[in-house]
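Chain A, query sequence.
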Amino acid sequence: MQGNLPPEAQEKLEELQDLQETAQQVAMQKNQAETQLNEAETALDELDDIDEDTTMYREVGELFVKTGYDEAQDDLEEKVDSLEIRVETLEKQEERVQEQFESLQSELQNMLGGGGGPGGPQGPGMGGGAGGA
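Chain A, predicted structure.
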């Protein structure tokens, strides 16, 4: 399909496709981390409404193990902190991939005579935000 492209342009196009896949993977990981973060924050909020003497259990694999209020709170706070860092890291990675994509796209367009012809890549599809062009 791209047999008419110069080898350098073909290589850039393949790099764009790889970056697009990377962007999709990062976006999926970020969505999963955000979901886990929301769940942990909700659980932590609910813990505030529970009497400290209430019997609680936490899931460990296939089992539910009795746990204390303080331990549950500490575990959830640690999980929230960890997930906030994970989401922040993935957001930065997402931005870097987007910048690389736009730079590579620009190089390819210049290589092919500027203008960004029809049918070219439109962006890594990272969900709303800055599109290509």
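The first strand starts at residue 56 and ends at 60. The radius of gyration is 23 Å.
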